[in-house]
Every structure is written in C-alpha cells, then in structure tokens.
Write a structure and sequence with these properties.
Strand 1 (about 30-35) and strand 2 form a beta hairpin. The chain contains eight helices and two strands, in the order ααββαααααα. With about 180 residues, the chain is mainly α. It folds into two domains: about 1-55, Orthogonal Bundle (Multidrug-efflux Transporter Regulator, Chain: A, Domain 2); about 75-170, no CATH class. The chain has helices at about 5-10, 15-25, 40-55, 60-70, 80-90, 95-105, 115-130, 140-170, and strands at about 30-35, 35-40. Helix 3 crosses helix 4 (about 60-70) and helix 4 (about 60-70) packs antiparallel against helix 5. It has a two-stranded antiparallel ribbon.
C-alpha cells in the first residue's frame, strides 16, 4: 500500500507517518520506484502500537521509541520488555506519592495502602495470565507487555473514576446534573 492508503487505514496523517519514520518509530517502507514507497500490514500494526503509546499512554516520542525498540529487540525477555514499559510510564513510586500526600496534609492516605496492594496483586496476577496467552510468540508477548501496561493503566484509571462516581453518588446523593 502507498503512504496515502496507510494514512487512511491508520487514521494518522501522512506528515505524522513521515515524522515517525524519521524518528525511528516506524521502519521505512520498501522503495518501489524513484518517488514511491510501499508499506504493508506490519507498518499498519506498528503505527497502531505507536499511536497507543503516544496518544493513550501519553509518552514522549523519545520514550515511545525506547519502548518500541524493546518490543522489537529479540534478545530481552518478556519480563525485560515489561520493565522497560513500566519505567517509561512510571509517574513515581509509592513512597513518592505518600510523601506528596503527607506534604499536602493528607498523610492518612497511607491507610489505604494495604487495600491498594491487595487489589494491585490480584489485578497483576490476572494481567500476567492474559499476557501468558501469547506464550508461543516472543514478539507478541513483548507487545502484549507494552500494550497491557499502557492500556491497562488507562483502563484502570477510567474504571476507577467510574467506580468513584458511583460510590460518591451512593454516599452523597446524585448530582443535579445526573
């Protein structure tokens, strides 16, 4: 497919695709003529992965490039790919969060830590089971580690906000706008 079709099918503008190629997030296509380059389904798939990292995960381009490189590097383990992704999306440690809460006068947030740990351990076990479903294909495992981390964070945050709205409604009554 030509770059215009790749843009149409991916929903990503041609200029952005060219930028991703220049930045090394997307491999160049195969030259088919002086001014013609052909792309295939692997380019479309990679574009979707990059879009997930940049738009959903809100990773800077340089960080997304590191994550994509980890996914497509045949030498590291799945655990290593997961680690690269987690470091890329990390926004602070538990200690950092509790320190900020304390500085804001909310040290009692730490009282929720045991419940957070239990819920996180249950969720992590389920996520690792989901990850292991691709155990026959190292590339797919590494990509699942990335996608599961980035989209999992977004899914968890969205689900948590939804649950908070429901709990708030139950505790404090409905909002006049509900």
């Amino acid at each position: 497919m030509q770059i215009n079709e790749l843009a149409e099918r991916s929903g990503i503008p041609v200029a952005t695709i060219k930028y991703y190629v220049r930045e090394g997030l997307l491999p160049g296509g195969n030259r088919t003529g002086y001014n013609r380059v052909a792309y295939d389904e692997s380019h479309l798939h990679r574009l979707r992965l990059v879009r997930t990292l940049v738009e959903v995960g809100r990773l800077p381009i340089a960080t997304a490039k590191e994550v994509v490189a980890a996914v497509h590097d045949p030498s590291p383990s799945v655990h290593s790919s997961l680690g690269v992704t987690q470091r890329a999306v990390a926004e602070g440690s538990v200690a950092d969060v509790l320190e900020v809460a304390d500085a804001l006068g909310h040290a009692d947030l730490a009282e929720l830590l045991t419940a957070y740990h239990k819920a996180a351990e249950q969720l992590a076990a389920l996520e690792i089971q989901w990850l292991a479903k691709a155990s026959g294909n190292l590339d797919q495992l590494a990509e699942r580690a990335v996608v599961g981390t980035v989209l999992g964070d977004a899914l968890l945050a969205a689900t948590r906000r939804e649950a908070q709205r429901n709990a708030s409604r139950a505790a404090f009554g409905p909002d006049p706008q509900d």
